[in-house]
Write a structure and sequence with these properties.
Rossmann fold; alpha/beta; Immunoglobulin-like; six-stranded mixed β-sheet; six-stranded parallel β-sheet; 753 residues; globular; TIM Barrel; 3 domains
């Protein structure tokens, strides 16, 4: 078969269709009664900012509702407030159109789950779906029917703070988890379920490739890179039925995404088949003025004509489009199309059937932060921790002796949940110190010392910790107290890393090491000669070169949510065996960024990673590879991989190939392992990555148990977008690799016809 016959054009990829005759008739009838201004009002999405104070019915937001100038709002907390605003919409206006109510429900609502980057390290779509389902149940009980989640941007630069909000660096894994989030949030029957809410996939598109890792910055790349490395999670979310998509802040080909017709209409709608609502990010129409592209009125025209349906915050659609319509710069048909999509969203949510569907105070009283939800959050958190190092089986710790918990994050109640958790109640969450003490009971003593501030510099720390500050102490005194506690203890558990707001939106860093005061604390503790376990709190990959060389045990606990204390204790003392694996490459130096495992091989590859060769593609001062590779994670047990076998040496056109590998638990603990499959296309129309993830299985093996893991490869796994953006594969030689991570693999070769 020729390469041409294997390929199909990119425009042939089709998504889901939401329309139905009943909905179309209902909405057409409603729109026939609407004035132009009422239609424009539906396109307006202001923020409540939870600034609604005093009597809700007298608030500016309520007045805008009475005038039918908004289609919904976001960032208003509390079911009673939301119910009253919904009442104004459906009982005090002529059209009685219900409001859609949104919020950034990113990793839980009142019950908070690990940050999304941590969740991805479970490599468990069922866990991700379950966490999203619980988040939807709680948010819907408190008046929310729309979440600005999931974020599915591929991110490969650890300097970018919002890497914490996504699923890591790999498009295959990102696509699998994007579908899981959509299923969890939306369920199977959104219209008839009061426990599910609408998703809004973000950010379309390529926001994770922000130049220099600086938030809101330009993202510039070729179409080849867009299609092959960044597009898959967006496509998967659309295929799963996501009801809304949010455009991104960055420019694409020099044009702000909000006004980029190729991006929003040609690609998202025409090629990917998306038929849901397209909303801007916060004030991004207004910010086109700052971009130097257009003032608000012209920016509104450009955004609408590009395919944007709903304007978040700027008010440009509401206040300028009527005049632009008279001037012939927009059409009424395009305004109607946008309005219809807003109304379709409300129809799909069942709000026309029951405007108070998400406004039942009795649910809020019974279904938030329940013991069942907390138990699930605790269980799920333990799957996300990644054991990076464990010399001489130092972990799990025994419940005996005197354990010193040292570090500014050891008793930091308000920092356990991580970024994007404005709805959480930290006063109801346990600290790490409390979790460890509860776990050991009267079998051991846990003593605590803060040890250091986050940073030495108070101003730098104030900017880093944001809205969740920690009480500062004298740097010298804190260290002296820590050394005294360490001297009187048998083992040290160091709880250090980033504070919760050091990652997330607008939290970019140029230095991705553990902050200075904490690094010095670790060095002082290491000098005591006492055994040390490093509990790493972080929302991004960090440069851990010193720590990896000098600390015997490192457990990355990310930010694990409202049940952090108990979940960490579960793993630290061996009640649960760690099974998480990295979904981002941890660098040796910030100078390697962006860094990812699936790099395209150059004509002069790095050759021997242990020796510098000036005329190869390498650095004079650092190896090319990361400190910890994609897919990496240790366990308290050990797994042995037998020889991989293939069912045939050739995969026929339209056929399959089975890849088998026996895996045995050779250690002392029952545990889960994540078996990973990668491929490499030896010769293709364009240079292909050295390896690409194409399958994984999370298996559980009792100690001594063996299992043959089988993957079935199809031609779909071989396909990519070639130089003409045709989707298919080139017949010829392929390598297939299986292993516990992207580095430690065994390889076989087959031919695809």
């Amino acid at each position: 078969m020729s390469a041409i016959t294997c390929m199909c054009s990119a425009s042939a990829q089709i998504g889901n269709h939401f329309g139905n005759a009943e909905m179309d008739r209902f909405i057409s009838g409603l729109m026939n009664r609407m004035t132009l201004q009422e239609k424009l009002g539906q396109l307006n999405l202001p923020s409540g900012g939870d600034l609604v104070t005093g009597p809700v019915q007298c608030s500016p937001l309520a007045e805008s509702i009475r005038l039918q100038k908004i289609g919904g709002f976001f960032n208003v907390l509390g079911v009673e407030k939301i119910r009253e605003l919904q009442r104004v919409a459906v009982e005090e206006t002529e059209l009685k159109i219900p409001l859609v109510v949104g919020m950034d429900v990113i990793h839980g609502y009142k019950t908070v789950f690990p940050i999304p980057l941590a969740m991805s390290c479970s490599w468990d779509p069922e866990v991700v779906e379950r966490a999203a389902e619980i988040a939807a149940a709680e948010a819907s009980a408190d008046g929310i029917c729309w979440t600005f989640s999931p974020m599915v941007d591929i991110a490969r630069d650890a300097r970018w703070g919002r890497i914490a909000e996504g699923n890591g660096e790999d498009p295959y894994l990102g696509a699998v988890l994007a579908e899981a989030y959509v299923r969890g949030y939306q369920g199977d029957d959104l219209r008839n379920s009061e426990r599910h809410i609408m998703t809004c996939v973000k950010h379309f598109a390529f926001y994770g490739a922000s130049e220099s890792g600086r938030d809101y910055n330009i993202a510039d790349m070729s179409r080849i890179r867009m299609y092959n490395e960044y597009m898959a999670p967006y496509r998967a979310a659309v295929r799963a039925g996501a009801g809304a998509v949010m455009s991104s802040f960055n420019t694409v080909d020099g044009v702000p995404a909000t006004a980029n017709r190729w991006l929003l209409t040609d690609l998202l709608r025409d090629e990917m088949g998306f038929e849901g609502l397209l909303v801007t990010d916060y004030n991004s129409i207004g910010e086109m003025d700052t971009h130097g592209v257009a003032p608000l009125k012209e920016a509104s025209v450009r955004a609408l004509n590009a395919g944007t349906d709903m304007d978040m915050v700027s008010g440009g659609f509401l206040n300028t489009l009527e005049e632009s319509l008279r001037e012939g710069k927009v059409t009424e048909a395009r305004i109607d199309e946008a309005c219809r999509r807003v109304l379709e969203m409300k129809y799909r949510l069942g709000l026309f059937d029951d405007p108070y569907k998400y406004c039942r105070p009795e649910r809020a009283r019974k279904e938030l932060f329940t013991e069942e939800h907390r138990a699930e959050a605790r269980r799920i958190a333990t799957e996300t921790f990644v054991l990076l190092k464990n010399d001489d089986g130092m972990l799990p710790l025994k419940r005996q002796g005197r354990i010193a918990l040292i570090g500014p994050l050891g008793d930091a109640r308000n920092n356990m949940c991580g970024m994007w958790c404005s709805t959480c109640d930290p006063e109801r969450h346990g600290t790490l110190l409390e979790g460890l003490r509860a776990a050991v009971g009267n079998q051991a003593e846990v003593v605590y010392a803060k040890g250091s501030n986050i940073y030495y510099d108070e101003q730098l720390e104030r900017g880093a910790v944001g809205t969740r500050p920690l009480q500062r102490g004298d740097n010298r005194q804190l260290l002296e107290e820590a050394l005294q506690v360490a001297a009187e203890s048998d083992v040290i558990v160091a709880a250090v890393g980033e504070s919760s707001e050091m990652s997330g939106e607008s939290a970019s860093r140029t230095d991705i090491r553990i902050p200075d005061a904490q690094r010095d604390l670790l060095k002082a503790l290491q000098a005591t000669g006492k055994p040390i376990v490093l509990l790493l709190f972080t929302g991004r990959p960090l440069d851990l070169t010193w720590e990896s060389a000098n600390i015997p045990a490192i457990l990355n606990v990310w930010f694990a949510g409202s049940e952090t204390g108990d979940a960490v204790a579960d793993v630290l003392f061996g009640r649960v065996v760690p099974s998480g694996k990295l979904t981002t490459t941890f660098p040796r130096s910030v100078g390697q960024l962006p860094l990812y495992y699936s790099q395209v091989r150059t004509g002069r590859p790095d050759g021997n990673p242990d020796a510098f060769d000036r005329f190869q593609s390498n650095y004079i001062d650092c190896r090319n590879d990361g400190l910890y590779p994609f897919g990496y994670g240790l366990s308290y047990t050990t797994f042995e991989y037998g020889e991989m076998t293939l069912s045939a040496e050739t995969m026929p056109e339209g056929g399959t190939l089975e890849v088998r590998v026996p895996v045995t638990n050779t250690g002392a603990y029952d545990a889960a392992e994540i078996v990973q499959l990668y491929i490499h296309d030896r010769y293709a129309d364009i240079a292909r990555p050295v390896k690409e993830l194409k399958g994984f299985q999370r298996i559980f093996l009792k100690r001594g148990e063996s299992r043959e893991v089988t993957f079935t490869l199809t031609s779909e796994a071989l396909k990519y977008y070639n130089s003409q953006l045709e989707y298919g594969y080139d017949p010829g030689e392929f390598q297939v690799m299986v292993g516990p991570n992207s580095r430690d693999v065994q390889t076989k070769t087959f031919r695809a016809e």
